[in-house]
Amino acid sequence: MELEELRVYKQSMELGDQVWGIVEQWDWFAKDTVGKQLVRSVDSVAANLSEGFGRYHYRETINFGYYSRGSLYETKTWLTKAHNRKLMSDEMFEESTKEIKDIGIRLNNYIASLRKNIAKS
Question: Is the pLDDT of residue 27 over 90?
């Protein structure tokens, strides 16, 4: 299996692109404060999945899955701050929050499948 075949990876890449598109429209101050943090956290979700996938050891891959999950929840916090500060519409916020929830479920399932592989070996 290739990294690009993992649905959770594809979804996290798509969410990163969506967030980038949102942040691009903000003024300088919003981009420099909330925007940078938001983009870094959302990009870290896919980046940690990539790094873990490249390790070829289940335990390390699981650890990077946990880092990815942490970045996902950090992203949720920054999206909430952006929404509370009127930087994004209710619709954008709800759509992004729904996507985060779905990615979180897929990420937990991915981690659980890796744990099963450890148990088999």
Answer: yes
